[in-house]
Amino acid sequence: MYPYIQNTKEDIKRMLETIGIDSVDHLFSDIPEDIRFDRELDLKPSMSEMEVRKYLTDMSKKNLTINDLTCFLGAGAYDHYIPSVVKHITSRSEFYTSYTPYQPEVSQGTLQYIFEYQTLICKLTGMEVANASLYDGGTAIAEAAIMATNITRKDQLVISKTVNPQYREVLKTYAHLQNLEVIEVDEAEGVTNLDELKKNVTDKTAAVIVQSPNFFGIVEDLKAIEEIAHSQKKTLFVTCVDPISLGILKSPGSLGADIVVGEGQSLGISLQFGGPYLGFIAVNKAHMRRLPGRLVGETVDANGKRAFVLTLQAREQHIRREKATSNICSNQGINTLAAAVYLVTLGKQGLREVAARSTQMAHYAYSEMIKSGKFKPLFNKPFFKEFAVTSDIDADTVNKKLLDEKILGGYALEKDYPQYKNGILYAVTEKRTKEEIDKLISVLEGIE
Amino acid sequence: MRKYDKLIFELSKPGRRAFKLPESSIEEKNLEELIPAEFLSDEELDLPELSEVDIIRHYINLSNKNYGVDTGFYPLGSCTMKYNPKINEDMAGLDGFQNIHPFQSEDTVQGALQLMYELDKALCEISGMDKMTLQPAAGAHGELTGLALIKAYHEHRGDTKRTKIIVPDSAHGTNPASAMMAGFQTIEIKSTEEGLVDIESLKAALDDEVAGLMLTNPNTLGLFERHIVEIAKLVHDAGGLLYYDGANANAILGKVRPGDMGFDVVHFNLHKTFSTPHGGGGPGSGPVGVKKILMDYLPTPTVEKDGDRYYLNYNIPHSVGRMKDFYGHFSILVRAYSYILAMGKDGLKTVSEMAVLNANYLAHKLKDYYNLPEGTIYKHEFVMAGLKGALSDVTTLDVAKRLLDYGYHPPTIYFPLIVNEALMTEPTESESIETLDEFAEVMIKIAEEAKENPELLKEAPHNTPIGRPDEARAARNPVLRYEG
User: Least CB-CB distance to A135: which of B108, B137, B173?
Assistant: First the structure.
């Protein structure tokens, strides 16, 4: 007996009789005998729900969570508060057990929330068109880069080394496949080296790609970078952004970005060990038809009533096949719903407050941390919710000592930036309190 | 049900709030003291102002306009809309799985790594492969990953002239698109009358520029490619590799394995075969398995075990690099593993047997009314070439829309492209004989309506939240965001 299979012995008998065969095996007789799997799978026998629950719960308890530890770790995945409404809405199984809305008459729920999500991403980024989402921040950068090469018909991508190292790795993987050149521009004091950038932007450049706040948490001078990017007539300016930061920072759209991408995990999506998260991408109308992935548009039904449909599908892989410019055929579905619910729940005031509070707490932590001189700032630049410090102590030692005190320490920079040995990147969100930060400082001060 | 037709933005009213921060525990400064004013926005955010009550009612009303597997029968071919067990959701929601940061030290996430390791092993056993990467985010992403591996294999051998990928004309649209993304040219080969790979066309396409063949088996017509051993030999002899598109793996669990058929690389769609929810379009998960010859090219990191300790291995000599951030769609992996544990070695085999039985039973019930070849054995799905007896101007689209009136989600329509008026139907193992009988009765009734009252179908659906939308208008004049 299996709870998810309904056919009884009697049913099976009746079905076989109807078809006019004598056994289920007959239905597999078209598989050549020499490749048929003739033993049992080497897996555990089926378990009851009680056993599954116990087995996996025990396994889950081997992990320490952000409820066991106080989290100061970020580097692309953040411990922002998730309001209860998010989970309650995304748990509606009319939403999560549906497929891609190919039949709009019975998918208006999904289509409308995607339309609302697209609108919210536009409002936040200051752009005109957003798609129904991509896998994550890294693949969003890769898709934006490929899109830029298709628009400009150039094959060189210039990306700052202050962009999240994982995103750059993903970009390099995708770029290699399509024979595109990736030029990485050095950083200087935690921001993109503008002189180096200038040198590398030429008439071969399809896109200049930067992140702000960048991987170190520092707000880049997007205006200056925009000027350099657009010093070449066709070159596109791609910016990657933390959507929470847009509660207080100028939008990339207002600063001349051509393509805005980012990781949307901060918008009501659990950390869940790195995924699934949410890649977003937004452009101005001129590039609408070059966008990868799905788009939902408004129309009317046969009775003139407002309705939503998947639209401009002629761009997509299932129509264009080998002429497609992207192969993505899913979106992050239920995570776009989470992001939409998060944004409307925080609303006009709340998102600003969460952004501002994160900045306030991060700056408090920073000023307390550098007070004694044991930990020194790695950079002296304006930052949003993350900052980097260094010391004479190895980052792993610091993080082990913090873990002993139930603190999840920052991100060790050395593996991606060997020049910043002992450097640690701390993230502070609106969830952190003075008490928690003071404890972090006191443990840090106590490390020998 | 309430007639609800508002957009969230239309509910906004100045002063409403659904979110409140605690009082600040520090003395806050002016933001301009922390971040230079030139970087700060001087405009108000253009987000709606709503109460929690507004928000909940809005989305619950929207959910009522949606059809999911939990609502009813959803025989969407090649999408494997099986039941999504509720224990899976609970397991993914466990604190120990849901609330862990991807950059925590390995000793604090041993349970998560163990789950990934065990899932890797289980998927290897099911597919007959040697090692998996759990990184790919979806089926199409798995295809891209697999093709990247094939590319790296040839490149590493200095065999750089292999720039072509062969794809049958029955393939999913993602296959040629993924090949393009991976920097290959696609060669499409024709299917036989029966719907199988045409061996002669394959032979003609094979040369020393072919990097590999992408194949779905059973294919999109629900047919098992019974010449697969010969196909594999031909491709291998020509120096190419074989890619298995696992979109249709629901028919083969414990019955036959891609690894034993001769495939070198395979992806699974966990959101199809392994019961994780489709989520209205995602997130999915598309783990890729490889034979030993491709192990050195896998994306980093993989999950390994050393004694009792699980760890992330970044040391893969000729890795294609990173396909996405972090390690894959972890919480989807939890759901899939929960399903594999619940079904076990015995249950997974039963899944495929019942999926195949259900498909053949339903095909048998419909074959007098819809165009289906005689005497065919299907695997998990079958494709009807529209209504029998070429009727006036009633199309497959009309049949699909009329099904909505009877409370069913229609099959996949107009795919595969090689079948006219295609209705690609996949009942899955989740459905009972009663559901299949009722669905068949409705399909037969619709076939009768098509003769007696075609207008009923042409104007369908009649009792859904909206009527047929004007898709041409949406494409002609795209409105992609609320402008109110």
Answer: B137
Distances (CA, A) of A145 to A157, A183, A442, B246: 7, 12, 44, 29
Low-confidence spans in chain A with pLDDT less than 70: 317, 319
Structure token digits, residue A302: 């046969």
Helix axes A333-369, A108-125, angle to 10 degrees: 30
Task: Say whether B94 and A360 touch across the interface (CB within 8 A).
Answer: no
Query: Does A150 lie at the interface with B, CB-CB under 8 angstroms?
Result: no
Asked whether the predicted pLDDT for residue B344 surpasses 90, the reply is yes
pLDDT recorded at residue B389: 84
Interface of A with B in 207-246 (CB under 8 A): 219, 223, 246
Among A32, A7, A27, residue whose Cα is nearest residue B379? A27
Question: Token pair for residue B156?
Answer: 């590493």
Cβ–Cβ gap A47/B260 under 8 Å: no
Task: Give the CATH number of domain A84-342.
Answer: 3.40.640.10
The tens digit of pLDDT for each residue in A283-336 reads: 999 999 999 999 999 999 999 999 999 999 877 767 677 777 888 888 899 999
3-state SS class at B375: coil
Does the pTM surpass 0.90? The reply is yes
Query: Searching chain B, which residue's CA lies closest to the CA of residue A123?
Result: B46
CB contact under 8 A, A103 and B67: yes
The amino acid that residue A377 corresponds to is: P
Instruction: Give the domain ranges of chain A.
Output: 9-60, 70-80+346-446, 84-342
Identify the CATH homologous superfamily for domain A70-80+346-446. Aspartate Aminotransferase, domain 1 (3.90.1150.10)
Model confidence at B103, in pLDDT bands (50, 70, 90)?
A: very high
Identify residue B344 by its one-letter amino acid code.
G
**DSSP 3-state of A177:** helix
